[in-house]
What we know:
16% helix
Amino acid sequence: MASSGSDFQVADFLGALAQTVPPGAARPLVVHADQLTPLPADQVHNPTALAIAGRLPTVTFEIFRQTIPAGLSSDMQRHHHETVHYVISGSGHSEIEDETEPWGSGDFIYTPPWTWHRHYNDSATEPVEFLTIENSRLLGALGVGRRQSAGLVTVAEARTRFGKESS
Length: 167
């Protein structure tokens, strides 16, 4: 098997690797909805509710269920990790730097690293439910995780408060 170059085949590499890597033994394999751990409001910095599937033995990523109440939004924030929100229910829009994108049930929202962003629930009566997945554990383990919250402000106000390029 070639280890690089034009003769390298991913299938051959993974097939050889499978012989040396034992099956993972981490448990639990399932965390039920009633076992999610709500984050305290003083750790969220916005009107949304976050509950973490913290008992899952993931090493590189974290999973949350996030609820944005009717007519409200998350805070304007940025962080070193990537985030994907899967919209379980509801509709709204996101500001990600200078772009505004609408979304609804079944959509995925990607937030690149270190971009100012804020998610809005456009309904006056129904909450938005997200499944939020982020690689924050990996960056935390490497000692490079960072998050800034500017509160319930615009992108321009966040840039003014923190500086456009500050880290």
